[in-house]
Each structure stands twice: as structure tokens, then as C-alpha cells.
Design goal:
Structural class: alpha/beta
CATH class of the largest domain: Alpha Beta
Number of domains: 3
CATH superfamily of the largest domain: Periplasmic binding protein-like II
Mean pLDDT: 89
Number of helices: 11
Length: 295
């Protein structure tokens, strides 16, 4: 016998799952885009068909019955599995890989290397999501994220890591017009006022480096890319994360001011969702990023 004859209305089951998840007829109605009366009607029809109540109505609250708990829990997991498979099928047809990273990492490290990846891969669309706020892999919009910090991460697993170091940097022109090779309190300092405190401030750098200089930054930016742009333009000294500014040190648009580098407690990590790779294109992209970051 077809399973369809054994199952209640799919609309009623979806309604039950929404009410169970929200513990509210009103919130479920808002999610489903129907009236509260329509939600109540679907639950009543389901209760009549099954011959048992789904919820115990209390003052301003509802509680699931044991039968509802068993059914709704299974529905939640089943609908989640269906959604995952639908997304896999759709994305496998599109061949899209979405990579997330901070604005600085995307600009300074990722984008210059994407041409090589695209040469190795045909028919794959690359989408880069650049934002300094945390990207949640559980949200489903990003396949791979490069995250700066310390694992483990609740929303994914690390497939590659790279430690980094910090060194003060400035433009060659700024370096030449200064007096002496080392830093002094008379220097102009550039600060990144990022919300993510894994970015080290000049005050933290002084403490870690056991530096006695009085450092009072005159320029403040909320994006690291702008701070480095100001340093390259000769407007002062910025803290340079070696992995991010190495290209500028190599091409001579930045120079380092201190011989001793400070190792960072945090590191860069290629992080993928804990579930299996959605497509072979995502797996290939993760392998490529892991190799590129580690070398």
C-alpha cells in the first residue's frame, strides 16, 4: 500500500511541526503565512484523524502531549533532512561554491589567489562573502569559511590551519623621513577599531612586546584594509599581520620596522560544516584552500 494512504495531510504535518517548534499557534501562523484560525483548524483535523490530542492548552501556553512529542520530533528531523537534500541537488546543478572570510582576508589573501583556483576548475562558480562579523556555517549560506581564532568551532570542523605573526609596518617614504630606525613616541600610529577583538590593538601589542613607548594612535579605521591603505600611503605605522601584508612587503610598498616578530595566539583556519561536503566542487575548493593556506 502506498505510504501516502498511511499519512495524514502534509499541510497538517507541517503545521504541527511549526507549532511544536514555536510552542505557539500565533508564531507558527506567522511563519507559515496563514491565520491563527487556519493553524488551529489543521491541528484539529490532525487530532481527529489520529484520534488523540496533540497539545494541552493552558493559560497563555501550550504543551505537547507524548504522542505529539514523538511525531513532531521525527517531523523536525525529517524536514531538515529533506531541506538538506534539496539544497544539495540544487547546488550540485549550479556548481556554486561560496567562500566566506573577513574583508581583509578576502582582499589581501584570497582574491589574488582565486585566479589560480579558477584555472584549475572549469564550470564552477565562485561566490565570496566578505564580512567582519562572524559567519555561521549552520545558517547554510556559506560552504567554506576562513576564520581567525582558536578552535574548536561549534559550527564546523577545521581542515587546515596557519599561524601568523605581527610586525609594525609603514611605507618606505614614511620610513625615510623618520629619524632613526626604531619606533618612537613621536611616530604617527594607525589603529584598527574592529569589533572582533582577535585583532590586536597597539595597547595590547605594547604589553605583549614589553614595549615602554607611549603609543597614542592618531588615525582610527573600522576596517583593517583601510588601516593598511593609510600605512601604504605614508600616513603612519600600522600593525601588520604577516599573512595579510606579505604581498606589500614583497613588492616594497610596505617595510617592517622591527626585526623581532610577535607570534599570534590565534591562527587562520579553513573551516567546513560538520556534515559531509555538499558537492564535489565544494570538496575540491576546500582541498585547494587547505593546501594554499598551509604553504
Amino acid at each position: 500500500m502506498s505510504f501516502r494512504r498511511r499519512l495524514p495531510s502534509l499541510t497538517a504535518l507541517m503545521t504541527l511541526e511549526a507549532v511544536f517548534r514555536h510552542r505557539s499557534f500565533t508564531a507558527a501562523a506567522a511563519e507559515l503565512g496563514v491565520t491563527q484560525a487556519a493553524v488551529s483548524r489543521q491541528i484539529a483535523l490532525l487530532e481527529d484523524e489520529l484520534g488523540l490530542p496533540m497539545f494541552v492548552r493552558k493559560h497563555r501556553a501550550i504543551e505537547p502531549t507524548p504522542g505529539c512529542l514523538a511525531l513532531a520530533t521525527t517531523l523536525t528531523q525529517s524536514f531538515s533532512n529533506i531541506a538538506d537534500v534539496v539544497e544539495v541537488v540544487g547546488r550540485s546543478q549550479q556548481g556554486v561554491v561560496t567562500i566566506g572570510a573577513t574583508v581583509a582576508f578576502s582582499s589581501f589573501w584570497l582574491l589574488p589567489r582565486l585566479a589560480e583556483f579558477r584555472r584549475q576548475t572549469s564550470g564552477v562558480q565562485i561566490r565570496v562573502v566578505s564580512q567582519d562579523s562572524k559567519i555561521d556555517l549552520n545558517a547554510g549560506g556559506v560552504d567554506i569559511v576562513i576564520r581567525y581564532g582558536q578552535p574548536p568551532f561549534a559550527d564546523g570542523r577545521v581542515v587546515a590551519s596557519r599561524e601568523d605573526s605581527i610586525v609594525p609596518v609603514c611605507s618606505p617614504e614614511y620610513f625615510r623621513r623618520r629619524e632613526g630606525g626604531g619606533m618612537s613616541s613621536a611616530d604617527e600610529f594607525i589603529e584598527t577599531d574592529a569589533q572582533d577583538r582577535s585583532w590586536m590593538t597597539w595597547s595590547q601589542w605594547r604589553q605583549e612586546a614589553d614595549c615602554s613607548l607611549q603609543i597614542s594612535p592618531q588615525l582610527h579605521f573600522n576596517h583593517y584594509t583601510e588601516a593598511i591603505a593609510a600605512a601604504r600611503a605614508g600616513q603612519g605605522i600600522a600593525l601588520g599581520w604577516r599573512l595579510l601584508v606579505q604581498t606589500f612587503l614583497d613588492d616594497g610598498t610596505l617595510v617592517s620596522l622591527e626585526d623581532a616578530e610577535m607570534r599570534t595566539a590565534d591562527a587562520y583556519h579553513v573551516v567546513v560544516p560538520s556534515r559531509p561536503y555538499r558537492t564535489s566542487a565544494v570538496e575540491h575548493a576546500a582541498d585547494w584552500l587547505a593546501f594554499a593556506l598551509s604553504h
